[in-house]
Specification:
By secondary structure, the chain is mainly α. Helix content is about 80%, strand content about 0%. The longest helix has about 35 residues, at about 1-35.
Length: about 150
């Protein structure tokens, strides 16, 4: 029962995080770029940031808990000797990339966001969205026994 609850919560977090970034990248960002209007991004960010970060935190917590279940005591989970350990290792790298992009955007781009710096933020948004979709693909791969 606990395992199924963790999978559900992990998937729910992924749905919010990835779905929110897809909405941002596919609907909000193109309009902001077309109109050179950084306020569109600020408005989305204002509503999504807290919810999105909570979803990401939920994914991290449940992901680590699931890893503990798959690899008790985290033993050999980075051995890369199975699709499971390989996918988990890649997901951890994706998480580090996501955190790096998010921290850089939050502290260096968003506070100074203008018409002129909008393109720099666009690259971050596309990067985080791509990483989020890869998270989903790898997570689905874990549940279906790998993609090969």
């Amino acid at each position: 029962m606990l395992f199924k609850l963790l999978i559900f919560l992990h998937t729910l977090g992924a749905t919010v995080w990835t779905g929110g970034h897809l909405v941002l990248a596919v609907t909000v960002l193109p309009q902001a770029l077309k109109n050179r209007d950084p306020d569109r991004i600020h408005q989305f960010e204002e509503h999504f940031e807290g919810f999105g970060l909570a979803a990401l935190a939920l994914q991290v917590i449940t992901g680590l808990w699931l890893t503990w279940i798959y690899f008790p005591g985290f033993q050999n989970f980075l051995a890369f000797d199975s699709y499971l350990s390989t996918y988990i290792g890649i997901k951890l790298l994706l998480l580090l990339g996501t955190l790096a992009l998010a921290i850089h955007a939050r502290f260096f781009i968003i506070p100074n966001l203008t018409k002129e710096t909008l393109n720099r933020l666009a690259y971050h948004i596309l990067g985080v969205t791509t990483l989020a979709v890869l998270f989903v693909a790898l997570g689905a791969g874990i549940r279906v026994g790998g993609w090969s």
